[in-house]
Design brief:
Layout lengths: L2 H7 L2 E3 L8 E3 L1 H21 L1 H4 L2 E2 L4 E2 L2 H12 L12 H13 L5 H16 L10 H13 L2 E3 L3 H20 L8 H17 L5 H20 L25 H9 L14 E3 L9 H4 L21 H14 L2 H5 L7 H23 L7 H18 L5 H18 L4 H16 L8 H15 L4 H10 L7 H13 L8 H23 L28 H27 L1 H10 L9 H10 L5 H8 L4 H12 L8 H10 L7 H18 L7 H19 L9 H7 L11 H13 L15 H13 L13 H22 L3 H20 L3 H14 L11 H7 L1 H17 L7 H13 L5 H8 L3 H5 L1
Antiparallel strand pairs: 1-2, 3-4, 5-6
Length: 919
C-alpha cells in the first residue's frame, strides 16, 4: 500500500485552508478522534478511586459535572453532519478545558486533557474561517494559563507543565493566532516565563523544554511583526492606532498573580498547583512596576485589541527588564549569584537575539520599538559587553551583528559607542584586562562585521568623516593589523583571525572595484576663510553625487582639526593660532566659534577647557555663556542635565571659577526647564547641593554620610522662599547616591552611566543620517591609502611565520586583492612593495645558497605559492609595475638556471626589460 493510500485509508483529506502539503481530518475522522480522546480521558478518570464512583448531590446521586459534560459531548459528536469549520469549537473544547481548570483533578487526568487539546490544535482544524474561532482561542488560552491540578508526585507535575508549554506554543503557531488579543499573548509569554523559572528546581528535561518553548514563542511573536502595519495592528484587521499601555501587562501579571497561592511540593492529595502561582527565582520588585493594583480597564486598554505591536512592545520591554535583574537583586541571600550572574542574562540575551533576527528591518517601521532598543537594550548591551563571561560576550556580539545588518540606519551613534568600547578593550588586552577567550570572542565579532561587504566603507563615511565622531575605520584597521603581528610569540588563532579580517576588508574593496572600475577622485575644497562648519549638513545623504564630496571635505577638515587639537593640548595659545591660520577659527576670535570648538571637538584636554570656561576675563565669560547655550536641557531632570554639562570638561578647582561655571549652567537650565524651579538662583543653589551630596556619598574619606532627611533639610526654602516638592528632592538624592557624577575625565572602558545614556539619546536626535554604501567604490581610494601599508606588512609577517597551507592561501588571497586595488587606483608604489615582498618568499633570489635548488623549491609549498602569485600579478597588472620589474626578472632567470624554464622563455624575457619599458 502506498503512502497516499495509507492517508486515505485513515480518513485524512487535504483541506484547502491548510498550508501546502498539510492534511487535516475529514469530518468523520475528526469526530472519531474526539471520541477517542473522550474515551481516553474517561478511562483515566475511572481509574481514580475518588472519581470512579458516584457524585453525591442534595437531590440525587449524579455523576460529577465534568464527567457529564464529556459524556454529553460524546452523544452529539456523530449527529453533526456539517463540516467542522462550521461547528463552534467551544462546544467540543469546553469539556476538556473544564477538566484543565478544575483544582479537584489530579495531575495524570489534567495531563490527558491537555494532550487532547494539543491534538485538536495541531490538526489545523481551527483557522480564521472556523465559526466563533476567536472565542474558542480565548477560552483555550484562559483555561491553560489558569490550569490547576492536585500534585501527587513531582514526575507527574513536570509532565503536566511540559504539556502546558506544548499547548500554549501550539496556540501561537495556530493559523488562528492572529485572532488572540494582546492580553492573551502576553499572558501566554508570562505563563511560560514562570514555568522556565520553576523548572530551575525540577528536572533537566523540563528546564530544556521550557526554555526552548520560550524561545519559540518569542520567535513566533516577532516573526508576525512583518504582518503588522505601521499603526501596530495586523494589516488584515483594521488600522486604528495602537495607543500606549498604562501598566506593563507582563510585569503586572507577574507581580499580582504570583501572590495567590504557594505551590506545595508535598504528595498530599489535597495539595494543588496553579500555573498562576508558580514560584520564581526573581523577586516581585525586579519585574514589577509598583502598580499591580491599578485597574487595567480603567482606561481604554490596547491590550484588549487584536494581537499587534502593543503586545510585541510589552514582550520586548519585559525581555530587556530581565537584563536589569542582577542590579536589583544581586545582594539577595536567596540567590546563588555565581550561577545567576551568567544564566539569567544569557537566557534573556538569547531571546532578544531571536526577536531581532525574526523582526529584522520591520522593527524600523515601529518607532516605539526602536526607542526601546535605543534606551533600554543598548545600555545593557554596553554593560554586558564588559562581561567576563565569554558566553555572554558572544551573545552580545551576535545581537550587535543583527542590529547592524537590520537597523544600522537608526542606530548610528549606538553602534559607534559599542564598537569604540570593543576596540578599546581589544587594544588594552595586552595589559591583562581580558582573558584570551574574551579577546577571541571580541575579535571574532569584529571580523564578522568586516566580512560584511560595505561595513568598512560605512564606518569611514559615517564616522571617520564626521567631526563629532571617532575614527572607527582607522581604529579597526590599526587594531587588525597590529593584532595580526606575532610579536615575540608563535602564530596563534588570534593572529589568524585578525588577518582574516584584513583580507575580508581588502577583498570587499576589490569586489567594488570590479563592479565599477573608476574611483571617485573629485578635488577637495580648500578652506580660504572661516565658516561655522560644526553643524553643516549634506543636502542629500541618499545621493552619492551629494554626500561623497561632502564627507571627503569633512574628512579634510577633521584631519586639520585633529592637528589643532594636538597643538592646543600642548600649548593652548599656539593651538588657537594654528586653527586661525588654517581657517578653522576666525582671524578675529569670537566667543561663539571658540565655544563650539570646546563643545564639539573630540580629544581636547578637559582640564584646559575647564580652566578657560572658569576664567574671569570678559571674553572667556562670553565663551562660557555661548558654551552653556549649546546644550539642550529640555525635559531633563536637574541631575541628568548637570551630569551632561560637567562631562564635557573638568570642573576647575577654584571656588570662584566653579561659581561662574555653575551660574552659566543654572541660567541655561532654568531658561529651558522652569516647571519646578522658581528662578535661576534656585537652580544654582540646588546644583551646589547636588555636587556636595555627590562628594559626600562617593568620597571614601567621608565617614558619616548625608541622609535623605539631611539633604531635604539642607534645601529648605531655596525655591523663591518656598520648599521644593519632597518627591523631587528624593529622586535627586537617590539618583546621586546610586550613580556618581564623575568630576574628571575617565580613562579606559567606561561603565554606562545615566548621563552617557541621555547624552547618546540627545546626540542621536541631531546626528546626521546614516549613509549606506552600495557596491561602488566612492571612497575606496581614500580608505586604501590608510589601510594598504599596515595590511601589507601584516600579511607578509603572517605569511612568513605560518606553517599551514590554509593560512598561506588566505595571505595569497589578500595579496591578489591588494594588487587589483593598487592597479585600479594607479598606486604603483604599493604594487611594487607587494611584488618585492612576494619575490622574497619565492626563495628564487637566493638559489646560490641552496645545495639542491630544484628539490628545495619543490619541497617548499610557501615558495611555490608565492611564485605563482608573483607571475599572476605580473600577467594581470604588469603595466603598473615599475621598480619590482627587476625582481620578477630575477625570479624568471633563477627558474631558468635550475632547469624549470625552457631556454627560449628566458631569452625572450632578456630581450625585453620590463623596467626599461615602464621607465
Amino acid at each position: 500500500m502506498t503512502m497516499g493510500s495509507l492517508k486515505m485509508h485513515a480518513g485524512i483529506e487535504e483541506n484547502g485552508h491548510g498550508e501546502p502539503g498539510q492534511y487535516i481530518p475529514s469530518s468523520t475522522a475528526f469526530a472519531c478522534m474526539i471520541n477517542s480522546e473522550i474515551g481516553a480521558l474517561l478511562a483515566v478518570v475511572r481509574r481514580n478511586v475518588r472519581w470512579g464512583g458516584r457524585y453525591m448531590s442534595e437531590e440525587d446521586q449524579l455523576e460529577h459535572s465534568l464527567i457529564q459534560s464529556l459524556k454529553s459531548l460524546r452523544k452529539k459528536l456523530f449527529s453533526w453532519n456539517r463540516q467542522w469549520n462550521a461547528v463552534d469549537p467551544s462546544i467540543y473544547l469546553q469539556p476538556f478545558l473544564d477538566v484543565i481548570r478544575s483544582d479537584e483533578i489530579g495531575a495524570p487526568i489534567t495531563g490527558v486533557a491537555l494532550s487532547s487539546v494539543y491534538k485538536i490544535l495541531s490538526l489545523g482544524i481551527l483557522d480564521p474561517t472556523t465559526v466563533n474561532v476567536k472565542d474558542a482561542m480565548h477560552l483555550v488560552v484562559d483555561a491553560v494559563t489558569s490550569c490547576r491540578f492536585e500534585v501527587t508526585d513531582s514526575a507527574s507535575e513536570e509532565v503536566v507543565l511540559m504539556k502546558i508549554l506544548q499547548v500554549l506554543l501550539a496556540c501561537m503557531k495556530s493559523k488562528a493566532s492572529f485572532l488572540l488579543n494582546n492580553q492573551h499573548v502576553c499572558t501566554i509569554v508570562n505563563t511560560c516565563f514562570r514555568i522556565v523559572h520553576q523548572a530551575g528546581t525540577k528536572g533537566e528535561l523540563l528546564q530544556r523544554i521550557a526554555r526552548h518553548t520560550m524561545n519559540e514563542l518569542v520567535r513566533c511573536i516577532f516573526l508576525h511583526l512583518q504582518h503588522f502595519n505601521h499603526t501596530g495592528k495586523p494589516s488584515t484587521h483594521g488600522n486604528g492606532p495602537p495607543g500606549e499601555t498604562e501598566v506593563s501587562v507582563l510585569q503586572k501579571e507577574y507581580t499580582s498573580e504570583d501572590k495567590q497561592l504557594d505551590r506545595s511540593n508535598g504528595s498530599s492529595e489535597n495539595a494543588s498547583v496553579s500555573v498562576g502561582s508558580l514560584r520564581s527565582l526573581v523577586d516581585d520588585s525586579v519585574v514589577g512596576t509598583g502598580h499591580s493594583e491599578v485597574a487595567v480597564d480603567a482606561v481604554p486598554n490596547p491590550m484588549n485589541e487584536l494581537y499587534g505591536v502593543a503586545c510585541v512592545l510589552e514582550v520586548f520591554q519585559f525581555l530587556c527588564s530581565l537584563l536589569n535583574v542582577g542590579d536589583q537583586i544581586g545582594m539577595s541571600p536567596r540567590l546563588n549569584w555565581t550561577e545567576f550572574d551568567e544564566d539569567v542574562p544569557l537566557f534573556a540575551l538569547g531571546l532578544i537575539n531571536s526577536s531581532i533576527e525574526l523582526g529584522g528591518s520591520f522593527i524600523s517601521q515601529h518607532p516605539k520599538l526602536l526607542i526601546l532598543i535605543k534606551e533600554e537594550l543598548f545600555p545593557n548591551l554596553m554593560q554586558f559587553g564588559l562581561s567576563m563571561s565569554p558566553l555572554i560576550l558572544s551573545m552580545v556580539c551576535n545581537i550587535i551583528l543583527n542590529l547592524y545588518l537590520h537597523l544600522r540606519k537608526e542606530l548610528k551613534l549606538q553602534l559607534e559607542a559599542f564598537l569604540s568600547s570593543v576596540i578599546q578593550r581589544l587594544a588594552q588586552s595586552k595589559h591583562g584586562d581580558s582573558s584570551y577567550q574574551q579577546q577571541e570572542v571580541l575579535m571574532e565579532a569584529l571580523v564578522d562585521l568586516c566580512r560584511q561587504k560595505t561595513f568598512m566603507a560605512e564606518l569611514y563615511a559615517n564616522f571617520d568623516c564626521d567631526i563629532s565622531c571617532c575614527n572607527l575605520f582607522e581604529d579597526v584597521s590599526n587594531l587588525l593589523s597590529k593584532s595580526a603581528f606575532p610579536v615575540n610569540s608563535p602564530l596563534s588563532s588570534m593572529h589568524v583571525l585578525a588577518l582574516e579580517g584584513l583580507v575580508a576588508v581588502v577583498e570587499g574593496f576589490s569586489e567594488r572595484i570590479g563592479n565599477s572600475p573608476s574611483f571617485s577622485d573629485k578635488s577637495l575644497l580648500v578652506l580660504e576663510q572661516y565658516t561655522p562648519f560644526w553643524n553643516e549638513k549634506c543636502k542629500n545623504y541618499a545621493d552619492p553625487d551629494s554626500w561623497v564630496g561632502f564627507v571627503r571635505h569633512r574628512k579634510q577638515i577633521k584631519k586639520t582639526l585633529m592637528m589643532g587639537v594636538d597643538h592646543f593640548n600642548r600649548d593652548p595659545k599656539k593651538g588657537l593660532e594654528f586653527l586661525q591660520r588654517t581657517h578653522l577659527l576666525p582671524t578675529e576670535l569670537d566667543p561663539q566659534s571658540v565655544a563650539l570648538f570646546f563643545r564639539y571637538t573630540l580629544g581636547l584636554d578637559k582640564n584646559i577647557v575647564g580652566d578657560f570656561l572658569g576664567s574671569h576675563e570678559e571674553f572667556w565669560v562670553q565663551v562660557l555663556q555661548e558654551f552653556a547655550r549649546s546644550f539642550n536641557f529640555q525635559d531633563m531632570n536637574l541631575d541628568i542635565a548637570l551630569r551632561l554639562f560637567l562631562e564635557s570638561f573638568r570642573l576647575p578647582g577654584e571656588s570662584q571659577k566653579i561659581q561662574r561655571v555653575l551660574e552659566a549652567f543654572s541660567e541655561r537650565f532654568y531658561e529651558q526647564s522652569p516647571q519646578i524651579l522658581a528662578n535661576k538662583d534656585a537652580a544654582l543653589v540646588l546644583s551646589y547641593s547636588i555636587i556636595l551630596l555627590n562628594t559626600d556619598q562617593h568620597n571614601v574619606r567621608v565617614k558619616k554620610k548625608m541622609t535623605v532627611e539631611d539633604f531635604v533639610r539642607n534645601n529648605r526654602r531655596i525655591n523663591g522662599g518656598d520648599d521644593l516638592p519632597r518627591e523631587f528632592l528624593l529622586e535627586l538624592y537617590h539618583s546621586i547616591c546610586k550613580n556618581e557624577i564623575k568630576m574628571s575625565p575617565e580613562q579606559g572602558a567606561e561603565v554606562v552611566t545615566p548621563s552617557h545614556r541621555v547624552n547618546l539619546m540627545h546626540k542621536s536626535k541631531t546626528a546626521p543620517p546614516f549613509i549606506t554604501c552600495d557596491s561602488k567604490p566612492f571612497l575606496d581610494r581614500d580608505m586604501f591609502s590608510v589601510l594598504s601599508g599596515p595590511t601589507l606588512a601584516a600579511i607578509c609577517v603572517v605569511f612568513d611565520n605560518a606553517e599551514n597551507e590554509d593560512i598561506y592561501q588566505t595571505c595569497i588571497d589578500g595579496c591578489l586583492a591588494m594588487a587589483q586595488i593598487a592597479s585600479c587606483s594607479h598606486s604603483v608604489n604599493i604594487l611594487d612593495d607587494l611584488v618585492i615582498s612576494l619575490c622574497k618568499f619565492t626563495t628564487l633570489l637566493d638559489i646560490s645558497q641552496m645545495d639542491d635548488p630544484i628539490l628545495a623549491f619543490a619541497d617548499d609549498t610557501k615558495a611555490m605559492m608565492a611564485t605563482v602569485t608573483v607571475f599572476t600579478i605580473a600577467n594581470k597588472y604588469g603595466d603598473y609595475i615599475v621598480l619590482a620589474g627587476r625582481n620578477i626578472l630575477d625570479c624568471i632567470l633563477s627558474l631558468h638556471r635550475i632547469g624549470l624554464l625552457p631556454s627560449v622563455a628566458a631569452s625572450n624575457e632578456q630581450s625585453s626589460d620590463p623596467v626599461s619599458e615602464n621607465q
